[in-house]
């Protein structure tokens, strides 16, 4: 059903806009879909000037359409270099190109290869920067409850990003892995997994726990 | 084919996407949070609570200075000040569904949601 609907949508988009670059991505592209899966389609066009995510429902299936412009790579370059949440580029990297007469999707994939190379070369510097940010966040405790929670989650997010930079600097996470990076951490470093699990969600001892774990384990091993 | 025709029209007109984007981002965020809540059992409880809370904090920051959402922002803040739990999630879910009914039910008849990725 999903493949059939995806083909229908792609054919429709192509007939409505023949020079639109179109690729199938997500679980339908890699064959891991089930009846509850979305259909994810990647598009690009030489006249588009920005990037969008549009979604709607068709035949009771959620259809997500990602429209990417190459400038997202410099708009988001720091995030893409430092942090593990690179789902957006995963959608591009793992996509199956259907139409690409202007080679726009091929160009996006080339930019991802370049990004991965930079991540690999710069990983020590990137890890060091993330550690500095963690120290800064720990030293600037916030009195406002929501800001306090944000700081904790930023620290934990940086720790997860450090883990992925150290262990998998060239890896682009799949959608499933991006939603649940903890399973990968659990497999590779059970101690780090248990530390994260003990700190989430934010509670009155979270900061104490993470400070202790940073000093005794995280900054030593990473 | 109405939905598909709208998607195709949106995608073939970049200006239309930019001009009509107002308000869609909030609806997008609400739907995303409700989806996170709906699938929270697929993840360890501690991690799923954090995922939901992070998304709700981002949403709260997005709407807190918008006068039309002021009452909802205050309610959200009260919930965020508590430690995340199943009970807080239930209250959050009810609040977000109320927001959907009050603000988006009449403007989203074909279920199209646009997120500007800039």
From TrEMBL, chain A:
* Top-rank taxon: Bacteria
Query: What sections of the protein cross the membrane?
Result: none
GO MF annotations for this entry? nucleotidyltransferase activity
* Stored InterPro entries: NT_sf (IPR043519), Polymerase_NTP_transf_dom (IPR002934)
Cite the Pfam families for this sequence. NTP_transf_2 (PF01909)
Q: Which Gene3D superfamilies match?
A: Beta Polymerase, domain 2
Q: Give the record's keywords alphabetically.
A: Transferase
Q: Does the keyword Transferase apply?
A: yes
Instruction: Show where the Polymerase nucleotidyl transferase domain sits.
Output: 9-77
Is tRNA processing one of the keywords UniProt gives this record? no
- Designated name of the protein: Nucleotidyltransferase-like protein
- Native species of this protein? Dysgonomonas alginatilytica
UniProtKB/TrEMBL annotation, chain B:
The superkingdom listed in its UniProt entry is Bacteria
Protein name (database record)? Uncharacterized protein
Say which species the protein is native to: Dysgonomonas alginatilytica
């Amino acid at each position: 059903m999903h493949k059939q609907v995806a083909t229908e949508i792609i054919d429709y988009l192509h007939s409505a806009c023949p020079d639109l670059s179109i690729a199938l991505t997500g679980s339908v592209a890699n064959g891991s879909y089930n009846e509850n899966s979305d259909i994810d389609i990647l598009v690009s066009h030489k006249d588009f000037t920005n990037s969008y995510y549009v979604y709607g429902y068709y035949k009771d299936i959620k259809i997500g359409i990602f429209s990417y412009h190459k400038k997202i790579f410099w708009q988001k370059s720091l995030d893409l270099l430092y942090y593990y949440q690179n789902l957006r580029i995963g959608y591009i990297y793992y996509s199956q190109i259907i139409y690409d007469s202007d080679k726009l999707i091929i160009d996006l994939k080339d930019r991802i290869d370049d990004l991965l190379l930079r991540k690999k070369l710069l990983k020590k510097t990137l890890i060091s920067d993330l550690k500095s940010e963690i120290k800064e966040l720990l030293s600037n405790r916030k009195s406002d409850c929501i800001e306090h929670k944000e700081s904790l989650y930023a620290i934990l997010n940086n720790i997860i990003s450090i883990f992925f930079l150290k262990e998998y600097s060239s890896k682009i996470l799949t959608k499933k892995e991006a939603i649940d990076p903890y399973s990968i951490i659990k497999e590779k470093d059970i101690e780090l997994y248990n530390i994260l699990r003990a700190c989430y969600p934010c509670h009155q001892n979270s900061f104490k726990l993470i400070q202790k774990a940073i000093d005794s384990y995280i900054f030593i091993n990473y | 084919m109405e939905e598909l025709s709208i998607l195709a029209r949106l995608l073939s007109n970049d200006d239309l996407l930019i001009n009509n984007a107002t308000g869609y981002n909030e609806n997008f965020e609400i739907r995303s949070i409700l989806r996170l809540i709906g699938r929270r059992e697929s993840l360890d409880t501690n991690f799923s609570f954090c995922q939901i809370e992070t998304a709700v904090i981002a949403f709260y920051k997005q709407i807190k200075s918008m006068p039309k959402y002021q009452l909802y922002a205050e309610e959200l803040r009260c919930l965020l000040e508590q430690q995340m739990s199943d009970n807080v999630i239930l209250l959050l879910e009810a609040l977000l569904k109320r927001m959907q009914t009050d603000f988006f039910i009449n403007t989203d008849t074909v279920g199209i949601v646009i997120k500007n990725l800039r």
